[in-house]
Every structure is written in structure tokens, then in C-alpha cells.
Amino acid sequence: MTGPGALLVVGDVVTDVVAIHPEPLAPATDTTARIRTLPGGAGANAACWAARTGTAEVRLLTRVGVESARWHERALVDAGVRPRLVIDSQEPTGTVVALVGKDAERTFLTDSGASLRLCPADWAPSLLDGAAHLHLSGYLFFADSSRELAMVALRAARTRGVPVSVDPASAGFLAALGPQRFLDSVAGAGVLLPNEDEARLLAGLPEPTGVARAAAALSRRVPLVVVTRGAAGALIAEDGRITAEVEAEPAEAVDTTGAGDAFTGGFLAARLEGADPPEAARAGCRAAALAVTRVGGRP
Questions:
Q1: Residue 44's closest CA among 10, 19, 18, 71?
Q2: Is 223 exposed, middle or buried (0-12, 13-18, 19+ CB in 10 A)?
Q3: Are 287 and 263 in contact (CB under 8 A)?
Q4: d(CA 22, CA 250)
Q5: Cβ count near 206 (within 10 Å)
Q6: CA distance between the termini of the chain
Q7: What is the pLDDT of residues 224-235, one digit of tens each?
């Protein structure tokens, strides 16, 4: 295989229903909104952004419902991703309702559906053939079946010398699972990509604590920690200390849905092409800046 080797993403595909409402929600009556139904999912979004911004082959292992499998497969193929979709006959594809306010910030209502029914039987060692990196969406770790699959994939990658990254995905779900349980499950990963809230939670530090302290603490457990900070850019910690701060790219935000996924995709694509962590973080910031200028989480 020519090029830098493939990126394998294991994660979620969902159907996003994005509702942009310039005015505050009006309880018990109507609120005018612009509503779009779009393909999404943290794992799938990251894969699509990696395919857009890099030259490596990008693969995705995920599980979807029968009702939308063809639609999602076509969207992924059109984005340059090679999908391996496990069709679930019992549960529909996951659905996320994203409520986006005037400030472009979003609130999610999440029904994970088929995506968290991934299981070890869905794994095949051949998925790692020619792979240079494995990325695991953190959503996998929030259900027993998909967490077991994620740990099988992580162990397989480590056995074959393939580096692994994890995006913690959701502070709310992390709190419900338990930070220590999550960290134990991702032991052996080389890169952790939390946002500020997730970093503080995983480090066990209170809200007012500086995120730099949280990043440094986490990098004693995972060698490279890259904390996304929205308009403040990104913070890089390695082996217990902060090694770089990267500024965000300026952008006029319309919808922040998927900005973190875009950062992850841009970051991983750059790393596969040989970029050091600060260079890769800058590539991630460029992707995130583009992502927030459009509705939905995909390129």
C-alpha cells in the first residue's frame, strides 16, 4: 500500500436532526427553527473530516439500522470513507436531536440506537491490515457490548503495534459511567482528545481548576493529551507537562455541532502524514473552524 497507511475509526453513525432556533425555546408552544436531517455521529464525522483533510485511506466500522443503512453508506462513500456497516435488525440507527441557539452552541438529545450494539463478533482482525492508526469514539465505552468491542480492537491494535487514540465524547456520559472506569477501559491508548469539561472530569479536578493542570495530569496516564478549547484553540500535554498551546482559527460560527469531531479528523490525518502534535493540532483547528461555519457535523 502506498501513502501513510490507513486510519481505522471504530465508532458511531447516527442520524442528526439539527434545529437552529435564533430565539430562545418557548415552552408549551411553537418556536421558529430551521431544521435539517443530516448524517452524523462522532466516529463517522471524524472519519469524514480525516478523509477530507488527509491523503490516507480512511475506514469506519459501525452499526446501523436497516431503515437508513443505504443512505448512511452512500453519504460515507461520497465523503471518501470506506465503511464497514453492520446491519442491526432489531434497533434503528441512532438519532441525535441537536438544538442550536443564537450563540451557535448546541444541546443534544441522544438515542444511540444500533451504534452501541456493536459487539466483539463485529470485529475482524483484517480491519487492521494496512492500518497505521486506530481511533475509537468514546461513545463506544458507554454501553457494555460496544465497550467490550472497543477493548478488543484496542488490544488487537496494540498487539500489532498500531497506535490508538480515543475521543472521550461526552462529559455527561462520562460522569454516568465513572471517570476511573473509562480511564481503565482505555489503558494502552497513546492519544486522548478530550474537551475542557471532559479533561477536568477525567482528571478528577473541580470546575474552577485550570484546564492545563487537568491536561498535564491526564498525560501521566496517556502519553499525548490534546484538549480542545473551542475559540481558545487547543492545549497539548505530554508526559506530565504542557508542551504547546495552539490558537484557534477565526470563524463565524453558525453551528458548533461536530466541531470537536472535525478537530479530531484533521488532527489524525495530519499525524498520519508525519506532523508533530502542534502542527497536527493546527490542522485540527483549521478543520474545526470550517466545521462551525456550516450546519451539521460533516464536511
A1: 10
A2: middle
A3: yes
A4: 22
A5: 8
A6: 26
A7: 999 999 999 999
Cα–Cα nearest to 268, from 42, 80, 6: 6
pLDDT confidence of 3, banded at 50, 70, 90? Answer: low
Question: How do the residues of the chain divide into helix, strand and coil, expressed in percent and rounded to 5?
Answer: 40, 25, 35
pLDDT greater than 80 at residue 14: yes
Quote the CA–CA distance of 295 and 223 in Å, as a whole number. Answer: 34
> How far lies 208's CA from each of 196, 200, 211, 267, in Å?
11, 9, 9, 28
CB burial of residue 178 (10 Å; 0-12, 13-18, 19+): exposed
Please give the DSSP secondary-structure letter assigned to residue 257: T
pLDDT (tens digit, 9 = 90+) per residue, 186-198? 999 999 999 999 9
- DSSP bridge pairs for 34: 20
Beta bridge partners, 58, equal: 7, 81
Residue 32: count of CB within 10 angstroms of its CB: 9
| The residue to which cell 480515543 is assigned | 166
pLDDT surpassing 70 at residue 57 = yes
Residue 298 has pLDDT above 50, yes or no: yes
Residue 1 in this model has a pLDDT that exceeds 50: no
234-238 and 241-246: which strand pairing?
A: antiparallel
Amino acid of residue 129: D
Q: Which three cell numbers stand for residue 87?
A: 446491519
Rounded distance between C-alpha atoms, residue 114 and residue 151, angstroms: 18
State how far the Cα of 193 lies from the Cα of 9, in Å rounded to an integer: 14
